[in-house]
Amino acid sequence: MVTGMRLPFHRSSGYVVQRAGLKLAFLLVIAAVEQAFGWDNAVVHLSFLFAGLCLVLAICYGDRPTAADLNHWDEACWFGLLTCLA
Question: What is the tens place of the pLDDT at every residue in 40-57?
Fold first, then answer.
């Protein structure tokens, strides 16, 4: 049994997780307001806009989709999946 083998976790990956968590918290607040006022599909539209924004930022920053650490491409995939699931 090999001990001490861990997947490398880059500091920038932690920042991406925090950034995505903040955006998800924002979406949850909007979802609560949406349900209270009876709006329709605000969360779907916002998650789609977040996915598009992350795609634009990934292209502008020159992030690689196959990079070892998390980046804007991963965020775009998460929010794109959230859009498809909603």
Answer: 788 888 889 999 999 999
The DSSP 8-state label assigned to residue 4 in this structure reads: S
Report how many domains make up the chain. Answer: 1
80, part of any domain = yes
In a domain, 72, yes or no: yes
What domain range includes position 18?
A: 11-85
What does pTM read for this prediction? 0.72
* SS3 of residue 71 by DSSP: coil
45-84 CB burial, b ≥16 within 10 A, e <16: ebbbebbeebbeebeeeebeeeeebbbbbbbbebbbebbe
In a domain, residue 38? The reply is yes
